[in-house]
Design goal:
Helices cover about 30% and strands about 20% of the residues. It is an alpha/beta fold. It has one domain: Rossmann fold (3-Layer(aba) Sandwich), CATH 3.40.50. α1 packs parallel to α2.
């Protein structure tokens, strides 16, 4: 049953400890061997990263066994990546995580990558070099979008499910709902200087991952997306529904976020 793919935990903090535990278990599995651990990681959610860094340092686990693809990055109004000094920079937030890790345990700069609008095949080339993604970790957007794969719907028509499923790295104009929610969460409700563009990995990168693990504690703003995953039709209007036919998907939420499933 689709419902069985959703795990409900009592508190938001437990959701991110579950994220951290899964990551650490995978990292332990490749220590001392020749295999690498190829992952897609989000910046949002981020509460798991200090937990992960602390466990890495305590156990002496090397991140250099990983090959990491970051999901996305904000762009300025010119379509260029925002400065790493910008408080919203996903690159900078990932680097902040790495700074929490003991230097000898950090990942090499050549072993992680972030989408680039001026090198649109960067993610495809990285995956071709290092091998398929083992696990895609991520959050859930208000439209049920994963990364910034928002519903490609406008007044002139919509992209087919097949086209959307095969979408690759691309530049996207962020939906007003996403800008509103993200500005409220990350910019104190100030919209005037919030980025309106982003570059994101495609649905094909997510769906081609061997396993997918999503984490959410957004409460009511994620109720409909999760309900659509369980009960709704497969549709580009809720991209999360395209994950239902994947063979290894797990969604972890807190009680408030999962509360509509019991009704």
């Amino acid at each position: 049953m689709i419902r069985n793919r959703i795990q409900i935990l009592s508190q938001p903090g437990n959701v991110y400890r579950e994220f951290a535990q899964g990551f650490i278990e995978q990292l332990r599995s490749v220590q001392g061997g020749s295999e690498t651990l190829n992952l897609i990681l989000p910046i949002g959610p981020t509460a798991q990263y200090p937990i992960i860094a602390g466990q890495i340092n305590e156990e002496g686990l090397s991140l250099d066994k990983c090959r990491i693809v970051l999901m996305d990055e904000y762009l300025d109004w010119h379509g260029r990546p925002i400065s790493p000094e910008h408080y919203l920079s996903f690159r900078r937030q990932f680097e902040n995580f790495l700074e929490l890790v003991n230097e000898k345990l950090r990942i090499s700069s050549s072993h992680w990558v972030i989408p680039d609008p001026f090198e649109i095949m960067r993610i495809d080339n990285f995956i071709s070099e290092f091998g398929p993604i083992h696990t895609c970790y991520g959050g859930i957007g208000v439209h049920g979008h994963i990364a910034f794969n928002e519903p490609p719907v406008n007044r002139y028509g919509e992209v087919s499910i097949e086209e959307f499923r095969e979408s690759g790295t691309r530049v996207v104009a962020l939906a007003p709902e996403t800008i509103t929610i993200n500005a409220l969460r990350g910019n104190h409700g100030k919209f005037s200087d919030f980025p309106q563009l982003a570059v994101t990995i495609g649905m094909k990168h997510i769906l081609n991952s061997k396993s997918i693990r999503l984490f959410a504690d957004g409460g009511s703003r994620q109720h409909e997306a999760i309900k659509q995953f369980v009960e709704g039709p497969e549709s580009v209007r809720y991209p999360i529904t395209l994950l239902r036919n994947h063979t290894d998907v797990k969604i972890v939420v807190d009680e408030l976020t999962g509360s509509e499933l019991s009704k």
